[in-house]
Amino acid sequence: MSTATEHGYTPLTIDTAIQYAKGQSYFTQNEEVYGEEIGDGNLNLVFRLTGQDGQRLIIKQALPYAKVIGDSWPLTLDRARIESEVLTIYGTYVPELVPKVLHTDSVQALTVMEDLSHLQIARKALKKGDHFPVLGEAIGRYTAHTLFFTSDFGMNQQDKKQLQKRFCNPDLCKITEELFFTDPFYDVESNSIDEGLQAYVKEHIWNDQTLLFAVAKAKYQFLTKAEALLHGDLHTGSIFADETQTKVIDPEFAFFGPVGFDIGSFLGNLAIAHISQAGYATADDDRQTAKQSLQQQMMSVWKTFEDEYATLWQNHNVEPHASIPGWSEKHIEAIWKDAVRFAGCELIRRTIGLALVEDFESIADKDRKLAAKTAALRVGKHLLLSTNIHTSEAFVKAVVS
Amino acid sequence: MSTATEHGYTPLTIDTAIQYAKGQSYFTQNEEVYGEEIGDGNLNLVFRLTGQDGQRLIIKQALPYAKVIGDSWPLTLDRARIESEVLTIYGTYVPELVPKVLHTDSVQALTVMEDLSHLQIARKALKKGDHFPVLGEAIGRYTAHTLFFTSDFGMNQQDKKQLQKRFCNPDLCKITEELFFTDPFYDVESNSIDEGLQAYVKEHIWNDQTLLFAVAKAKYQFLTKAEALLHGDLHTGSIFADETQTKVIDPEFAFFGPVGFDIGSFLGNLAIAHISQAGYATADDDRQTAKQSLQQQMMSVWKTFEDEYATLWQNHNVEPHASIPGWSEKHIEAIWKDAVRFAGCELIRRTIGLALVEDFESIADKDRKLAAKTAALRVGKHLLLSTNIHTSEAFVKAVVS
């Protein structure tokens, strides 16, 4: 595991970030540049720099540890390389959906990239009830293209194996293995369980062996099903959006895993946004509109994925068996089943695990918060255990119920 | 892809092999050493050297191409590293079942190892009707230990990912992807189809879309299910044996794939040995005894695997979810299902593909050969399509029928 000791690496400050950008000629030496650190600061430093004519850019630098857990969880700086390489690869498939990479520095573990602050972080905006009419469609297209073209169907199968070597990502995968698939399902210290929720969690999560078994199988898929180069952390906090644009950032968790994981993570977060609406004292009408829009996005992400993936399969498949009748449909069906289960895990871990979400945490009313969280656990369980969720309509029904 | 151009690499002759061994002090400079090249010569040179006091060793050197297909299929010399590293790793788990590695030379792509000529190649001996009463048990133990300890259950999950990088094996995997899972199922030039068998193959293999679909799914498992470090080519020609000993050689196809592949390959080859017995003009009694012994081995390989794997699971599991009731049984059941399907592919590809086997090819009587091959195709299909082969007894029944 690589850590802070890597030769020549120094965490930037606002001043040194500005110097660095000037050194790279993004600004002139005498220019007045305004800088701010805007990262949530868990794993990375993120500097937004603005020149005197208003031109902006982002410098994202990896930290050698995970701050959310304390300095005690060292994290390889190599994830900065992974992130910038994945942004570049994905940029060849869906340039309109990823930020432009301007420069990469492997020693400083940083990437200089396009600033996206004209857009909003989807999680924050969805919470407020904002609608993003093209979000679901965009993520459907994003996942279809990035996952198809890095799979054994969309790229030379020998090249895929070589690519897989470059995205062996044990440190970051370990975080997901523990925080997504393991810790929330046992009574361990890293969990954050609201007062009033303990009894429910104990009875309905930790003591439900059928649920634990479903989670165990989902984790094993994550560990072994090397289908395509995933984003690996595709939640609404990794997405910038407005009414017409969508940009997916932060693929530092990228690795070759099950295609359903990215889709399931995103669906799970839309479900969380939906369930948390009940916690806010907005007008009933607004709340209904927000919920309907979220339901629409949940359906359109899958419908778009399904359509685009099937079209790519038909037009760009390199696998000789691909034209066998039924293979495409069966494969897409398997991706959907995986996605539903991963969404279930996401709902549960974001409700009681270490990495909680502001959708729930910023609900001021304690009872409403508890009710929303209980609903999230119930829906998460249902997604993991039901064998009847065959369509995105059924998924929405499970979330709404 | 690395080829013959690698710096300093020179294929050995008998004379230079002897010089090399003397240079490494395995023999004294003035000693009279007898050498012979004993490889089947498809992918490698294999020299057996015998000193004047009778001490023997093997030098195995990778060739930069696959001879069976001609110089036109270049093959990385890196497979010599893979083979010697896997022999060393496996040697830590089942030292009694692998040859001892004495020396490795990455430039010359060679491994010096223990000679095993006191044993017989299982394929040749089984064909003659020889019995190896411990063979099934040995391969059951071999697969259980090597595959458990290189899986996410038997080793640190981050270390497994790093190990997987070392055994990315695109060149050799490509051979299996094409010759095992693709070419035999289409009318392509590389196949070798006996006169008299064409009509059957066309109707029952190439035109059976249900069969092709089952093969497509099996191939996808091979491409994406990265469960454990496989041998990757575990047929009876890769096994030395006698009445009490078993040694598995040639893991140059090693990579992280589905656990059921090694077991299925071996089972498929026992089934081939069984079916081919009918082709030989041996006495009925001898044939019956040989067949009964093979049936016994088919059952004991699985029963031993199942028992040993379950015990390793219980005593050495690193996965926190492993103690969830039912997980072990369900996982072993999934391995069995995979193994049955892979065995089915092996039967078919060894009957009509490029890499045929002497079990069938040395049957002198044309009609008997055709009958045996037809039976192999029928059994192979059944293994791929049946959903009722839940036990090793049922597997034997399918082979015998």
UniProtKB/TrEMBL annotation, chains A, B:
Record bears the keyword Transferase: yes
Entry's EC annotation: 2.7.1.100
Name the UniProt record assigns to this protein: S-methyl-5-thioribose kinase
Gene3D superfamilies, A to Z: 3.90.1200.10, Phosphorylase Kinase, domain 1
Entries under InterPro entries matching the protein: Aminoglycoside_PTrfase, Kinase-like_dom_sf, Methylthioribose_kinase
UniProt keyword tRNA processing present: no
GO biological process: methionine biosynthetic process
Subunit structure: Homodimer.
PANTHER family xref list: METHYLTHIORIBOSE KINASE
Alphabetic keyword roster: ATP-binding, Kinase, Nucleotide-binding, Transferase
Organism encoding this protein: Aureibacillus halotolerans
GO molecular function, one term: ATP binding
Family assignment from sequence similarity: Belongs to the methylthioribose kinase family.
Domain Aminoglycoside phosphotransferase residue range list: 36-278
Enzyme class: transferase
